[in-house]
């Protein structure tokens, strides 16, 4: 029996949306993976081997079609980044930078007073 020819109707959108939480996530996820697949095929002759090859056997040669087939086969996982946790981490880093700035200011005033200075 001949292999099923890839077309615009496969994989079905309904099956793809069951794997992700929104259409935006599907587009972003498949585009990122398609770029990785494209990079994999472009670096084959160089022997670098750092990029993950396609995870499904496909009759399609287009990276985006392969990426969508990987999403349908549940071979690609994504992780949601919590913007609140990311904001807290940035605030913590800013607090550390402020503390370092205060220490530098204190060291500068010690130099002006004729106190010990770090070289």
What does it look like?
- With 119 residues, the chain is mainly α.
- The protein folds into 2 domains: 60 residues, no CATH class; 31 residues.
- The protein is 57% helix and 0% strand.
- The protein has 4 helices and no strands.
Which structural traits does this protein have?
disordered C terminus; 119 residues; mainly alpha
* Average pLDDT number: 75
Outline the biggest β-sheet: none
Number of H- or I-type helical stretches:
4
Shape: flat
N-to-C order of helices and strands: HHHH
Strand content: under 5%
User: Which class best fits the helix and strand makeup?
Assistant: mainly alpha
Write the layout of secondary structure elements.
Elements (H helix, E strand, L loop, with lengths): L12 H7 L3 H21 L19 H10 L10 H30 L7
Helix pairs in contact: 2-3
Structure in a nutshell:
57% of the residues lie in helices and 0% in strands. It has helices at 13-19, 23-43, 63-72, 83-112.
């Amino acid at each position: 029996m001949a292999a099923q020819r890839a077309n615009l109707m496969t994989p079905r959108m309904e099956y793809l949306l069951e794997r992700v939480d929104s259409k935006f996530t599907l587009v972003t996820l498949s585009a990122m993976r398609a770029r990785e697949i494209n990079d994999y095929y472009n670096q084959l002759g160089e022997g670098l081997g750092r990029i993950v090859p396609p995870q499904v056997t496909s009759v399609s040669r287009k990276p985006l079609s392969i990426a969508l087939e990987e999403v349908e086969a549940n071979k690609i996982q994504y992780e949601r980044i919590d913007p609140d946790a990311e904001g807290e981490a940035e605030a913590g880093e800013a607090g550390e930078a402020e503390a370092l700035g205060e220490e530098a200011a204190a060291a500068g005033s010690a130099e002006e007073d004729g106190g010990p200075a770090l070289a």
